[in-house]
Amino acid sequence: MDIRQQQHVNERDYVLFPWSVQSKVNPINIVKGEGIYFWDDKGNRYMDFASQLVNLNIGFNHPKVIKAIKEQAEKLCYIAPSFGNEARAKLAKKIVEITPSNISKCFFTTSGADANENAIKIARFFTGKQKIIARYRSYHGATFGAISVSGDPRRFAAEPALNGIIRVLDPYCYRCPFDKEYPQCHIECAEHVREIIQFENPDSIAAMIIEPITGSNGIFIPPVEYMKRIREICDEYGILLIADEVMTGFGRTGEWFGVNLYGIEPDIMTMAKGCNSGYVPLGIVAVSSKIAEYFEDKMLYCGLTYSGHPLACAAALATIEAYEEEGIIENARAMGNLLTEYLKKIKMNHICVGDVRNAGLFGCIELVKDRKTKEPLCPWNGSSAIMDRIKEELWNEGLYLYIRWNYIFLAPPLIINQQQLEEGMKLVDEKLHMVDKLIS
Ligand code: PLP
């Protein structure tokens, strides 16, 4: 019997669902996607304001990418990574072209987490040092090494984690951990990193890993001086800078990469998600020419069965072609500017809104019980009935977005148009009126 033709299978009976207490899982079957919309098996349509997991940058079912996957599948579905692979070669060349000028070679993985795993290994091999600096409000993936360098509370369940991880406070201007205000603060959050480096022995630290703009911990957009200072501090102490571009890469911020907003060159860049919009799993570790040269006469102790998978690489090449040919990154910038305007209005009109932040189509509304005290509407690492209600009501009205703690994230596919953005933001605005009433 053809198992694909059998009667409906209850997924809950056979699948362990991620990040879930299994008995509470009640999956909605999604059967179709097109552009920024997807449909469940009852025919309900949803507008995707989260790009699924901030990866579906070009939207569902882009014909060019589907065609490229089909053509590659007919030619060569898989080849071991030690053989030459045309799709991988072309993709690596393209990545080197679109990343900062110091980046010269790529190692391919299958996700963001294992890109970060391999970046950490490469940083340790290259420097001969072991410790890694990471920020508290960060997420770098769920595998053991990647979750160990994450600050996100999702790491708690994996602890005690990898040895030698040093955590530092974040450039979270709205709730400055140093109780300062930009620009009078003299970027104390960066100077704090310098102090921690000294306390921890700079000669033992291999790398610092950062998201150029913090993603799932709340969209923190550091001042340009912060990133420049961090780059200088790393150089001063011989510490590599790893930019985790898994969410910020490939147009999300209105630039090819988050680091472009700051004009800095990281030593290592990790990427995944938007590189092929998630059509086929793929991660990338891109390294500077200095690091690439180091491995010319030394073993690179990294490898994966699916490294440089031809289907994933072909999908990424077609996705990058779509970004370029269809002006998708330009559109993200233009729609991002509109989003900034909507967010300004939202902040003006709602007492429940403490702060709004966005870079391109990477945005967040931070909800508070009281604007003066900034008490969050929902505690860090907690949940609240109001936040759950916002999410549920918006879903019922056909808008899917990512809500976590007291943050409403806004990260639609980069192909969204003005009318669609307006429609989604109107629904969000209406919900915030409800919250204003509930807290007043
Ligand atoms: N890095 C960042 C910044 C992320 O946001 C994520 C996932 O959300 C990851 C790494 C992990 O990527 P993946 O889930 O593909 O392993």
Automatic annotation (TrEMBL):
Pfam families: Aminotran_3
Keyword Transferase applies: yes
Keywords: Aminotransferase, Pyridoxal phosphate, Transferase
Keyword Membrane: no
GO CC annotations, alphabetized: cytosol
Required co-factors: pyridoxal 5'-phosphate
GO MF entries: pyridoxal phosphate binding; transaminase activity
PROSITE patterns named in the record: AA_TRANSFER_CLASS_3
Membership in a protein family: Belongs to the class-III pyridoxal-phosphate-dependent aminotransferase family.
Protein name: Aminotransferase class III-fold pyridoxal phosphate-dependent enzyme
